[in-house]
Structures are given as structure tokens and as C-alpha cells.
Predict the structure.
Amino acid sequence: MRIMTSNIWGDYFGNPVSVREGFLYEIFKKYSPDIIGMQEYTPGWYKSHMFNWLSNDYMCVGTEVQNNINYVPLVYKKEYKLRAMGYEYLENTPDATKGITWAFLKKEDGTKFVVCNTHFWWKAGPEHDVIRIYNARQLSELMKHLHKKYECPVLAFGDMNCVLSSDVFKIYAENGIKHLHDLAEKKDNVCSHHGNPVLGDDGRYHGVTTSKDKESSIDHIIALGDGFKVLEYRIIEDQIALDATDHSPVYVDIEL
């Protein structure tokens, strides 16, 4: 099973979706993840073709939350059956775009698991690190609740806006939550964030690879529970991915 997280670069900066959506769809189609968690799914992205393009193979969870836009929806391949779902705003966080969308999924063979897609608070500085600690505690408590309720592995992923040395990962460790990069048999050691693509004279955005390593990554895939094996943990640096967004999509291959 392949799980992918992708911050798709919301159109907050005069960076229109229309010139980038096709690139990201090509990445999703090429790598064909079973689950995709997207962050910064702004109103501009909801007006795009993305969900329509994905609808041939995927179902969506969390397209709307209490009549408001959900900026962290996820999609799953139609071979899985949705048994339960939910959404939480991140508490103590001054940004309604930050939340957690989760889904409990099963296959016909009885395989079951829970996935959580999230986006943490983004500003830098000690006072903002405290907010991310709140975010990590809330996610950890939700993962523990879902693990106990459904008796299966719980995988969480997203733009957590923190590096591996941050206190967020101490919170995870205290709650028995593991980073899947640590468990992977094969892995990439590059940073997941490469910076904003630049609009060229040709009307297209152009991104470049980063020189930073995994210690600077802010997009993460973590898990609680047993019963799975991590095969690969990869950072996508295809040129069209670099051109489409400031975050390289990250995926993990696991066996349940």
C-alpha cells in the first residue's frame, strides 16, 4: 500500500492553480498512491479540475466541514471501503485552515487501517513552537483513540511545519508514535521542502531541488501500532513536482 502526503501550495500568493494543477495530477497518476492527503486545498483548488480528474479512481473524504472549506481533505482508491470518518479543527491555533481529516478504511480481505491528514501551525519562533506542541498533542490523542477503537494501525501525515529536532517529535515518542522514515528499508534523505517555484517569462512556474537533507523536512509520515512493514520512504523530485508546489510530495510503501 502506498500513502502520499502533498502540500499543493495554496493560491495565497497570486500563484494561480490553473497553471499547476495538471502537473500535480500527473504526479498523482504516475505514482498511483492508494491514499493521498493534501494540504492547502484552498477555494481556488476546489474550483480546479483535480477532484474531477481523480474521481475515476478515488473517493474523497472531507470536502466540506460544517459548511466551511476543509483545507486538508484526503482521497482513497475505490478498492477500499470507508467505514468511518471525521474532522477536527486544531485547537489553540489561530487559523481555521489547520485541522485533521481522518478515515477508517477496510479492504475485502479484512485488512483495516486508519489514516489522518493534517496541517500544523506555520509561523516561526518560540511562541509559535508552543502552538505546534498543542497540535502534536491533539493529533497524538486522536491517533491513540482511533487505534484503541478500531484495533488497527493508525497512520498520520501532512505538513507539520516542524523539523525532526523539534519538541513535536518528543511528544510523538512519548505516545509510542514512530516516524516511518526510521523504519523504512529504503529511504531518501533529502528535505521535503524545496521553496517556492518562480514564475518564468514563459508563464510557467519553475522549481529547483533543495540542497538540504531530511533533518530540515517539515512534511512527515508517522504511525501508531504494529502489524505493518515499511518498505520505502520517498521524496518526489520530478521536475513537474518541483514546478507545481513548494513541497515535494512524500510517499511511503508499507505492507500491512
Observations:
- The longest strand covers residues 81-89.
- The radius of gyration is 17 Å.
- The mean pLDDT is 96.
- Residues 2-255 form a domain with the Deoxyribonuclease I; Chain A fold (CATH 3.60.10.10).
